[in-house]
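Record type: monomer structure entry
Structure origin: computed from sequence
Chain ID: A
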Amino acid sequence: MPRRVFVHIGAPKTGSTYVQNVLFGNAERLERTGLLVPATFSAHDQAMTDLRQVPWRDPELYWTWDRLLERFERWPGDVVLTSEGFGAATAEQAKRAVESLRPAEVHIVVAARDLWRTFPSMWQQSIRARSTWRFEDFLTAVEEGKFDGFWDHYTANRMFQRWGDLVPPAQRHIVTVPQPGAPHDLLWKRFAGVLGIPDGVCEPAAPESNPSLGAPEIEVLRRVNAALGDLYPHRLPYQRVVHQHLLRAVLQRRENDMRFGVGLDRAGWVAELADQQIKELQDYPCHIVGDLAELRPGRMGDSTSPDALDEKQILDAAIQTIVGMIAHADALKQQVPQQPVGMIARVRRGVRRRLVS
């Protein structure tokens, strides 16, 4: 059994993709230092969906929580497990996870980011995960206390209530996400310090591994999700089709220069929430890496909501997206076998029904 197991439980939109790229990209180097990053990122993600028993888990997935544990049961050193979805586990699921890792010394690692940046990032992530709600509807739901899941899934203080209490204070770690303008590898250095990874062991990852979409692009994706109806109900098939051929191949490649975020009319509300969050974390016994003051919003500027775009802006983005997909399809035509005509017709009929309903 490992000596120590570090469970990186999120939160989502706190640089998790960047940290994971460094970990998995340097797995062999880390193993030589005594830190095992078992299997693949996909295995960790699948194990997370099994641990949480989420309804959108593809029933054909191979990796379960127990199978992932089998990969390192004889490893004598340290192990790191990472998924930004672990933090959304219920108290019972978190308890099961921690107990299954003992007698190893279990460490819980959570990252925290200021809410001014988290709100638009979280909403965008939900759209990438097939949601269809408008940005204003999301913000209003949080503001009016109708979306408690946001706090449970995206904030360190709530995650610690379910995970942190299962381990001693010295084994609870919070890493704050630096404000814009900080060196791009500062987050990794903070994370590496928690795991005891010496400087120079890992090759750094690219600074931007998961680029955000602009307001018109995310609104196009939101409307596509609505038009899909009940097609691709599980996450993996949706990612294989929509993420591969629309999101990554086209939308992320656009200039995306029309950024969006929380309006200045909510600046006071967000600042008050930040102070409350900082107070809760100050009162919670844990190892703080960074500075809790970084959870206060930095530059709070006004921005354009995707809801405020006019139809011409959205139409222009949609047309350019179609042009991009045509170019993408042309590049693939010699590489990927043609889909059966019947399958193509079924997809078109499904989309058409949603558009006219």
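Annotation 1: The chain has a mean pLDDT of 91.
Annotation 2: The longest helix spans residues 311-332.
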